[in-house]
Automatic annotation (TrEMBL):
It is an enzyme of class 2 (transferase). NCBIfam families: MJ1255. It comes from uncultured Thermoplasmata archaeon. GO terms for molecular function: glycosyltransferase activity. Belongs to the glycosyltransferase 28 family. This is UDP-N-acetylglucosamine--N-acetylmuramyl-(Pentapeptide) pyrophosphoryl-undecaprenol N-acetylglucosamine transferase. Pfam families: Glyco_trans_1_3. The gene is murG. Its EC number is 2.4.1.227. Keywords: Glycosyltransferase, Transferase.
């Protein structure tokens, strides 16, 4: 089957997840055409030939998180240059490729192509949990505006799909039809690595997000391996490392706990290795706050809005309890979602 696969360019989590799915589809004999923007295009281009770059619209950030006003300004500034390019690609693709199914990882170009041409669209992402499930957590009143904005955006961006395959490490009640929850999709490097405990705490932050981070960590009596500062150094109990995929996976798998932002992909990988997680969600990013709140609810970790010595020490004092609760967590090695995807593609083929 010919499949058009769209991948949103914000961050790398969508791209690494999509890479796993695309490899599976190609092993099944499908012809997959990829459209992606930003970092997703850069990553997928290293592994796939049948890919085209499109213009994407991303968030703008300040030192504390998402800057909504700057994000809106950025989108408006990008439209004159990116919209004509995307429109040209849209109609060129109509002539050169005839997809029978569309898959979108929170990406609008492929979704709109499917809707315009009456082709079934399958959604694969973690964001749809915000709109298609009953969240069994208490959302603070001060976050209600961010929640409603996020829910509206998620609902509008990929409305009316053939089916929604939603990846999640928490499983609230599904409230809408054609929706199923599945364990997170994990890249093969994670599945191949063995979990152990060498005693260090893995930290993934940047000096821009927390300029006093190193002072905070040096005041705590633990060994830390820190990624995100873009340099190699050893400062007392803190080891700074430049990013490498192999090194990061090794340090993650061998850590005793993780401290990082609340991105879905890293949380999913840490939970796979049963590592307690202290999350620092980006401000005004409801999806990150949701991830953090469920970490705490499930007993897998905690969260704080500002990482300081007190928050770090409080988390460390509970690592044993979090590790105990994590023993109940288990995934399915991608099999559940990929098997369901195969069934959906077969359904689509049978009605065409």
């Amino acid at each position: 089957m010919n499949i058009l696969y769209g991948v949103v360019g914000e961050g790398l989590g969508h791209a690494t997840r999509s890479h796993v799915v695309i490899e599976h589809l190609e092993r099944q004999g499908h012809c997959v055409k990829i459209v992606a923007s930003g970092k997703a295009h850069e990553f997928l281009l290293k592994n796939h030939r049948n890919i085209e770059e499109i213009g994407g619209y991303g968030f703008a950030f300040n030192e504390s998180g998402v800057d909504l006003n700057a994000s809106l300004k950025k989108v408006l500034n990008d439209i004159p240059s990116k919209a004509p390019h995307n429109l040209k690609r849209f109609f060129e693709l109509s002539k050169s490729f005839r997809p029978e199914a569309i898959i979108s990882d929170f990406e609008s170009f492929a979704y709109l192509f499917g809707k315009y041409n009456h082709i079934p669209v399958i959604s694969i992402d973690n964001m749809q949990v915000i709109n298609r499930c009953r969240l069994d957590i208490d959302i603070p009143l001060k976050m209600m505006e961010d929640y409603l904005m996020a829910k509206g955006l998620v609902k509008a961006k990929l409305a009316g799909c053939y089916h929604y395959l939603v990846t999640s490490y928490f499983f609230p009640e599904v409230t809408k039809q054609d929706t199923t929850l599945h364990h997170p999709i994990l890249r093969k490097e994670i599945l191949a690595a063995a979990s152990e405990n060498r005693g260090h705490i893995l930290v993934y932050q940047t000096s821009k997000s927390n300029p006093r981070l190193l002072d905070t960590l040096r005041s705590v009596g633990e060994e830390f391996i820190v990624y995100g500062f873009g340099r190699e150094d050893v400062i007392g109990n803190v080891t700074l490392k430049n990013f490498s995929n192999e090194g990061f996976v090794s340090d993650l798998a061998s850590s005793k706990a993780v401290i990082a932002n609340s991105g879905f992909s890293l949380i999913s990988e840490a939970l796979h290795f049963k590592k307690p997680y202290l999350a620092i969600p980006l401000d005004r990013q409801f999806e990150q706050m949701l991830n953090a709140m469920y970490l705490k609810k499930l007993g897998y970790g905690d969260y704080c809005t500002k990482l300081d010595a007190k928050a770090t020490e409080n988390f460390i004092s509970q690592i044993d309890r979090f590790s105990h609760d994590l023993e109940a967590y288990s995934g399915d090695g991608n099999e559940g979602l990929l098997s369901h995807l195969d069934e959906l593609i077969l359904e689509i083929a049978e009605v065409q």
